[in-house]
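Appendix B, example 12.
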Amino acid sequence: MTTAALSTPLSTVERAQRVRLVIFDVDGVLTDARLYYGAQGEMLKAFNTLDGHGIKLLASVGIASAIITGRQSEIVASRAKELGIAHLYQGVHDKTTAFAQLLEVTGLAAGNCAYMGDDWPDLAVMTRVGFAAAPANAHPEVIARAHWVAQAQGGQGAVREMCDTLLRAQHHYDALLASACGI
């Protein structure tokens, strides 16, 4: 019998407990996947403030965040800066290369990373991380490969839901909530 045959698969909670870095796609995860273009060709994106606060809560307990996205946008750079996301990879066509660079820069193992994606370009990274997550409205092939799926849709609280799940698994949620209540 091999060692692999003796080991049991990790539960979702065990996977969440190991996370030290959360990586997000943008369109369909941090936004609702719709692209708005102005009359001058400028692109607009809407971000959810609940998601942003969840990312800040993760940072407050030492869980870093990163973005890997296929599009290039000053809007995303501004949002990342506002949320304190230091690792931003934009205009990425091969997300696995960006993921490998991110692992090298942070010194983390793939098993200590979470990734939330919604479509096929996210699958190669999702299948490598320790905690793969998807919004409720992700493509069915993404949902089938996720360890955890939000009840909320992308851009409508799915990221916050994942942040809360990680905070609960790592036993930070109750203390953060108590602090927010002034207790």
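The mean pLDDT is 94. The two ends are 53 Å apart (CA to CA).
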